[in-house]
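Dear support,

I submitted the protein below through the web form. The confirmation email said the job was done, but the results page showed an empty box. After a refresh the structure appeared. I'm attaching both so you can tell me whether what I see now is the final result or a partial one.
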Amino acid sequence: MANRGQPAPGGIERPSAPVQRRDWRQIARLIGVAILVLLLIAFIVANSQEVRINFIFFTVNVTLIWALLGTLLAGIAADRLLTWRGRHSP
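What the results page shows now:
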């Protein structure tokens, strides 16, 4: 039996493996991510019913979650366009 730091019987030295511990920040981050994932799943399930959206010339039926995500993306695009336009106007 070889001692720590001493060569093993085959002549191969085995380094002692350090014990790694997660600090409380990593644990808190993992718990936070898990909570966000669970909330996202609950949000998707709660908004899975189908809704009718009436546009000027046509009507579409989609699930509510897609309508909400489309509205979010349209809002982000409008914000970026107006912000860009405000910075580049004379």
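Response: this is the final, complete result; the empty box was a page-load delay. The mean pLDDT is 83.
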